[in-house]
Design brief:
Blueprint: H1 15-20, H2 23-38, H3 48-62, H4 71-78
């Protein structure tokens, strides 16, 4: 039985198959998915809490209160 077919016959990829893909294959698959979503006519509405967070971050930037770190600093924090 193919790992892409469920009992109903619809196609999907499971996490086992995804984990067997190379990093490049996974990135290419993600890019293809994003490209397909961009060209869809239906639009998914962002939740209100998301707008609130973005507005607060924008206000911090405009008021000069935002703090930014370099990618090196981020990597250093993640490795701790």
């Amino acid at each position: 039985m193919s790992p892409y077919i469920d009992g109903i016959g619809s196609k999907h990829m499971n996490t086992i198959e995804i984990s067997r893909m190379s990093t490049i294959e996974r990135l290419q698959t993600m890019e293809a998915i994003w490209d397909s979503l961009i060209h869809e006519n239906s639009e998914i509405e962002s939740p209100e809490w998301h707008r609130d967070i973005l507005a607060a971050r924008k206000l911090n930037i405009e008021e000069g209160k935002a703090e930014f770190i370099s990618i090196e600093e981020l990597r250093s924090k993640r490795s701790r």
